[in-house]
Amino acid sequence: MWPADAAVTGTRPFATAAPFVGFVTLAFDAAYQGQSEGEPRGLEDPAHRVEDMKAAVSFLTARDEVDPEHIGGLGICASGGYLLTAAASDHRIKAVGTVSGVDIARQFRLGADGTQDPAVFQGMLDAAAAARTAEARGEGVQTFQLFPDTAEQARALAGQHGYEGYEYCCTDRAQHPCSTKFLPWSSIDHLATFDAFRFVDMIAPRPLLMVVGREAETSWMGVEAFQHARGRKELHWINGASHVDLYDKEQYVGPSVAKLAEFFAAHLGEAK
Fold it and tell me: Would you state the pLDDT for residue 22?
């Protein structure tokens, strides 16, 4: 199982012929979520998410066991999109990998499959505006439930993709008491104008690897990001895998990890 949805990794090179001794990996909870601090709890703020990733890189650069010239980033799901934005403007990130990477703002605006009626998101913006007004009047943080109450409701509301997300996050498969189950409504207008793929071309000439499930409802976003990228880039398909399958199913995670390990070893182990 993936330990977290965002991580940065560095290598410590040998002084001799071998290119590196291994990976030093940092996984972290985003601000406002998990065991990290910040109010309101659960806030999804793209600007802060990107800043968290840059702060993680800064932390690694100060570690004696890490070569600051050999730091890469790995983002899973929404953190894949955030990482593309962070890496575009932070040249300390020397190699970029994503797994089931999406732009969460596109997912809210357009739906997981890209076919959502635009009126849905406009209604959410109305609700976000009303929530901000309520908060200004002292009514407390206004939130909405991220997942339905049952698997049946999840499938009815969001199809197979929604059901798989519910099963992963809300059952013994992977649920955790610190995981976010409610989002503040202000998250919606924070997300409204964010575009994770806008500057993906600026990652070049640094290498980019995107691992995508062949059956993923969200795969169109991976393809779109890949099309905008330049330079050394690879879109690696995992046959038979859905978006959520790549989180923890060994038959899909195993090949993904092998590909990512090869990628990071090759590019983070390169001579300066």
Answer: 81
